[in-house]
Structure formats: C-alpha cells, structure tokens
C-alpha cells in the first residue's frame, strides 16, 4: 500500500496583480463598541465580497494551490487515473457553480436538490470534521519536514511533530484573522517557494533520466496489490492529493464572472496539477525504487540527499515553506462554509459573523483552527486521510446525484455549462465504489464511527434547527453577545 510523499509545489492563489481586483474597503469610524451598538451593527454582504474579487488567474491558482499541498503514493497509473476522475468531478461542479451562483459549495447544491436536512448533515460533517482534519493533515506534513533536519538518521518524535503542527495552525489562523492583505503577502511569498521547488525536482529528475537512470521505471508497479479494497484505499490516497477541485465553489460569490472563469479555471488548473504530480513521481523514480519510496518518511528529502548534495538542504527548506503556504491557503476557504451555513441558520450564528474592523470571518477561522489542533492529537496522517476521504466521497457522490436530480426537477435554471449526464452518473458510481470497497475488503471500526458521527447531527437538527426551541435561543443570546464583544464581530446583512 502507498504512503505519503509530501510536496507542495504550486500557488494557492495570486491575490495581487492581474489576478485580483481590490474594490476598496470603507474606513470604519472610530468609536467604542458597547453591547447596544454591536447588536445593531451589520456588515453588508456586498462590502464583504468587494474586499476580494478573484479573476481567472486567481481562480486557476486557487484550484492548483489547494490541490498541490500534501500528496501520497508512488503509482503513476493511480496519479493519472485520479487526475482524470478529479477533472470529471470538477466539470460537474462547474455546471453546478454556474447554475447556482451561491458560495458554500456542496451545501448550496444539496439544499437546492434535496432540501435543508441533507445540506445540514453536510455542513455538520464538513465544519466539524472534514475541513479541520484537512487543515491538520497539511500542517502535520509541514511539521514532519520541518523537524526532519534536526533528527538526522531517525524519525522525529511524534510529540515534536504535533507541537510544530499546532504552532503552525496558530500562526496561520492568526494571520488570516488579522488581515486579508497580510494573508495575501504571506501567500505570495510562499508561491515563489512552491514554483521553485517543483522546478528543481523536475529538472533534477530529467537530468538523472538523461544519464540513463531508467531502471526503476521499468518495474515501478511490482508488488502492487490488486484487491478491490487495496485499490479503493489507493484511490483514497491519490484523490486526497487532488482534493481541492471543488474549492472555487465555496467562494462563487467572490469570483469575477463565475459563468466564464469557473469552468476555465477547472479546465486549466486540474490538468496542470496532474502533469506536476506525474512529473515529480517520474523524477523520484529516477533515483529511488518503489520500496525506497514506500519506506521513506519524507520522499522529497531523500531525493534531495541523493541528487542535490551538498545543496540538498534546499529541498526540505522549500518544501517546509510551500507546505506552510498550502496550509495558509486551506485556511482561506475554511470559513466560507461555516459563514454560509450560519447565515442560513444551520450553524450557530456566531460562526457567520464578520470582524467589524478587518472584514475577516474570524469566528469561523478560530473555530476551524481549534478543531484542527484537537485532531492532530490522537491521529496520524494516514488515519486522517482515510477518515476524511470516506466521509468526503459520500458527499461528492450525493452532489453529483444532485446534478442529475436537478436536470429533471429544476429545468428552468440557466446552465451556462452543461456536461453530459453520463459524467455525473460515473462520479456517483465511482463514489459508491470508493465508499463501499474498502469497507467490504477491510471493515475497520473507523468507518462505523464516521457514519455514526454524520447521522448524530440529526440529534441537533430537530430541536435546534427544525423546531427552533426557545430555551436554546435564550441560552445562546448572551453567549453570542459576549463573544461579539470579545472578538468585535457583527452579523452580515441578510
């Protein structure tokens, strides 16, 4: 089975220059915020959206940078197959995003197709597990590479890796809460590191192949398991690396000309990611066998030691920088789902509030960061990936099914992009396979825990969302008020 090779190589988004248009933020008057004033202040949603408008270049980089961050597996065939599958899935999301131009991704589409209950279960699972676990995985990869140079010849202690990951989460959340512009500067700096390290590795690998080091490519797939469960888990790991093809759909309201730029960004960005993954794997195979790839805790570091010595230190340095940048980018979209679901009454209202001074969704970002720190305590990277992928592909399949359903129930909706119906049908079938095959092959308890957690949201939905019991409102009102005063946040205008 496949382990991870951690490499972040490309941009999350370019928030300056040709890719971004700043509309300007109104200056806030200087006054003391008391409980009466803060309860009556709202932030206009158009003002929030005007802080950042992503054009086509930024949209492409958002997809590429989110997808390329932490990856797994040495099999070139799996990489290519996962790239094709991610492209087909993203095309389905292109139709959905141009048909329903709301932020929130799957949440908005499930609401339109199946009603609020299924959308609530999605937001419950994603806000509480999927988004923070993804954040945790990336920061754990960052911490592993950051700690490796200090422990030559051995694996860094697990407690060191987890402490470094927690520090990274704190720093990234602080930057994103403090200022959108500061987060932009941080992201642009790490963009250079991503582009530089991928260029170094690919060029070095091509040089080694030109010297005749091709023997590893002739037997790259020896010893690969052919069981349906093993293939399913391999796709879990490979598709984790491609996860991010739906990130633009979380910020549709902030995207310039979504009917044009959303599908174009998908068609340009995802093939670019696929090419990058395959080229980097080819470069690795030029100096490492499949067994060495499997045994290496940090493949890029091993590659640097063998090919770039005595300059091998640049590989872990730039991988650390680029992985940190990828985590920073992941944090950018983390608050959007909580913001939209809170706005619709499916999450506590405080998660949908916006900083009065900085126009950032700071409550949602802080909540996501706290959960990410909790998730790095008990689990390792591979466990988190399997747990994440099982739940995520349940909702990917339901979203593709929603596209099929709305072809018949919402015929009146304008569809600037319309994919053949066989594509969402294929995504539904693949999703069923990826969910069921590993369970049938090896029925671990983690899948049962995940299922129980998803449906446990019903215990909260009926009294607090459907019935809207009065005692809950009375309980939350003073809590919300005090949190508003503490964080200086206000609700968005409906």
TrEMBL record:
Primary location group: membrane
Catalytic activity: L-histidine(out) + L-arginine(in) = L-histidine(in) + L-arginine(out); L-leucine(out) + L-arginine(in) = L-leucine(in) + L-arginine(out); L-phenylalanine(out) + L-arginine(in) = L-phenylalanine(in) + L-arginine(out); L-lysine(out) + L-arginine(in) = L-lysine(in) + L-arginine(out)
Membrane topology: Multi-pass membrane protein
Pfam families linked: AA_permease_2
GO cellular component entries: apical plasma membrane
Keywords: Cell membrane, Disulfide bond, Membrane, Phosphoprotein, Transmembrane, Transmembrane helix, Transport
Domain of life: Eukaryota
Entry's transmembrane regions: 51-70, 76-96, 117-138, 158-180, 192-211, 223-242, 262-287, 313-339, 359-378, 390-409, 421-440, 446-465
Compartment(s) where it occurs, according to its Swiss-Prot or TrEMBL record: Apical cell membrane
Record-level Gene Ontology MF annotations: L-amino acid transmembrane transporter activity
Similarity field: Belongs to the amino acid-polyamine-organocation (APC) superfamily.
PANTHER family in the record: AMINO ACID TRANSPORTER (PTHR11785), B(0,+)-TYPE AMINO ACID TRANSPORTER 1 (PTHR11785:SF354)
Name this protein carries in UniProt: b(0,+)-type amino acid transporter 1
